[in-house]
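I have been asked to look over a protein record a colleague put together. Thanks in advance; the entry in question is below.
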Amino acid sequence: MNRVCATFRLPDGTCRSLGAGDLMGRLWSASLQIDDPRVSEGHAMLSLRGGDLWLLALRRRLAVEGRSVAEVRLMAGQRIALAQGLELVVVSVELPAEALAIEAPGLPPTMLPGLCSLQVHPQIQLFARYEPAAACLLWDTCDGWRRAQGGVTTPLAVGDRWVVEGLALRAVAMPVGAGLSPTRVTGGIDPPLHIITAYATAQIQIGDAPPVSFSGVHARILSELAALGGPAGWEVVAREVWPDEQDAWVLRKRWDVNLGRLRARLRDGGIRTDLVRAAGTGQVELVLRHNDVLEDRG
C-alpha cells in the first residue's frame, strides 16, 4: 500500500509532513517535536483507518472549531489546536490509491480498519477493536500488516489466503474513494443496515432484527443527510430542518442538542453511532458501510 501523509503548517510558518503512525509531542524522538510546555511528551499520533488519515489525541484532547475532540479525520484547511493558543493548520492530505481489504465466499471486498478482530461464528463479523477471544486478529503496523491466529503471528499482504474456522479468506487491494455516496467506509463486517428515509419518518433495520423507527426532527436529519448524498456543513442541514429559525446561536444550539439525542437513540437501538458522523471541519455526513442499503423515499 502507498504511504500516506499530512502536511501541517506550524505556528512559526514552517511546514512539516507526517505519515501514518508518526507521533507529535515534546519527546525528542517524536516525528514532529514541539518544544512547548503546553504539549505532552506524546501528544497525538496519525493513524490510517479504512483509507482516511486521522489525528488521535494520546494524553490531552484536541480542539477543532472550539470543540474538544479525541480524534479528527484530517482534511485540508482544518485548524487543529493542540493546546490553547497553539494551533496547527492542515495544508494537505495525501491518501493511498488502494488499501488492504479481505473477502470470503459470499462476502464482498471489505476494507480493513487499522486494528480488527475477526469472528466467524455464529456469523462473520469484523470488529474495529481488540477482542482477545477473536478467532483472528489483523492490524496495521504502518510498516506492514500482521495476522495473529492460533497463537501464531505472520505478515499479511495482498494475495494471501488463509482459513479461519472453516471460512476461506483472501487479502485483496481495494481502491480508496470508489465514488460511493453517501460516504461509505468499512470499519467492520457487522450485520448490514437497511435504511429507509421518507422526510418526516425513517427506519433503520440491522440484519434481520426488527427495524428501529424515527420521526420528527431525528427523521428529518437522517432524510436531509440521505438526500444530500455526501458531507455537508452542519448549518446547511440545520437550515433545512429548521427553515424559520433566524438566530444563528439558537440554530446551533438546536443542532447540537438534537444531533446528540439522535446519536443516543442510535446507540440505544443497537445501531453504530458513526452512522451519523460530525467531522472536525463542521461537516456532517451519513456514513454507510459497503453492505448497507439506503432507500431515500423523500
Observations:
- The two ends are 40 Å apart (CA to CA).
- The first helix runs from residue 216 to 228.
- The longest strand covers residues 86-94.
- The chain has three domains: 5-94, 98-178, 193-296.
